[in-house]
User: Fold SIS domain-containing protein from Streptomyces himalayensis subsp. himalayensis.
Amino acid sequence: MTAESLSAKGFARESLAVLDRITESARDEVARAAELIAECVRSDGVIQAFGTGHSQAIVLELAGRAGGLVPTSRLSIADLVLYGGDEPSVLDDPLLERESGVAARIYDLAAPSPQDLFVVISNSGVNNVVVEMALHAKEHGHRVLAITSLAHTRAVPAAHPSGKKLADLADVVLDNAAPRGDALLDLPGGGSVCALSTLTGVMLVQMTVAEAASLLLVSGERPPVYVSANVPGGFESNLGLEKRYAGRIRRPAS
Assistant:
């Protein structure tokens, strides 16, 4: 490793190279993921996005943001408190995402419709709650789109009692191309620094949304897309679009 590689310039160079690669390597999977999203929107479904830890950044990229699709809902472990009546102290447990039964409760609180699509995001793809969410969604007949690191998930053992990992359960897998452990730049003497999965996850989400919007337009349906609430009339326009999905999408303060 050179001094230049462990630098702002080095991270920019290495991460941009990965982003450039996935625009080509993920092309077929992005097209398949876009079909799932477009079909969900056409059938009056909602895209239910779920992740824990830093994967919530990718959830936020998909659900409820300017330029994004309106029929999207953010699922979270915090729903146990916000909608399930649990005491806020339950969120103090850093291992909550590994407990059995948590995902099933989050699913039940969301009360999804049969046509809803689940997008489950996890870099490792092995924590109990993400695997359980994918299993629960599949058992209830939903399609599942996973965003995960295949390099990482293939390098670690399954943690769920089923022996399954997130990638094993998904109808479509988008590989975020992050290395095992996520960090991109090697440190002298071992270890690494600067996580990659958020950058690549955002790229995959926006590529997929763009393709899905194109598919909807081709089929004669205008994509229901959010306008920034910080431009004149944007907030009012968004409220009008959200009426179609009243009671089915959540927009908590964040």
User: Anything to note?
Assistant: The first helix runs from residue 8 to 25.
